[in-house]
Amino acid sequence: xxxxxxxxxxxxxxxxxxxAIAATPATIETCFAPEHDCAxxxxxxxxxxxxxxxxxxxxxxxxxxxxxxxLGAKERGVDVRLVADKTTPCQRNSGIEPLARAGxxxxxxxxxxxxxxxxxxxxxxxxxxxxYNWTVGAARNSEDLNLIASPAVGAAYAAHWRERLAVSAPxxxxxxxxxxxxxxxxxxxxxxxxx
Length: 195
Description:
Blueprint: E1 3-12, E2 21-33, H1 38-47, E3 52-57, H2 66-75, E4 79-84, H3 96-101, E5 106-109, E6 119-122, E7 126-130, E8 143-149, H4 151-166, E9 168-170, H5 174-188
Parallel strand pairs: 3-4, 4-5
Antiparallel strand pairs: 1-2, 2-8, 3-6, 5-9, 6-7, 7-8
Helix pairs in contact: 1-2
């Protein structure tokens, strides 16, 4: 089996300025790439969604099955929403365009230097999080993806997602957004190749 299931009592906020959540039971499943198929692990969780998926994405590309599963969830009537890093729409094979065409509301986080988050909160109960980007390339890296089934953890991650939403701008078109990013980088002297 490509993951380990644990039943733990989770306490978040024990060691610093974080959200304090009382210890609650949680089921935790882990997946490690490249040894296991973490994209399939994520797709199984997405496929079980019934109401809502809040996605936080640093990288998001087509081809791994994850974007395709999010599109399937949207077609089933699940409310899929995405907050992404400002470079995400400018990547080759970005999953932003197909999601936007399907009517998924997308915002670009402009409040952080890098929106390096890789999370999904599914139906307010299941949280996917870890180092695993929502990309085809992540399967070749040493990565982790954790599934935590806990209403308390889901609520904490959903609250953080909404905090990022509050400092984000709506995404409309790749061309407009990528030109803005390129101009800003050019003015600051940090021009990088943006496809």
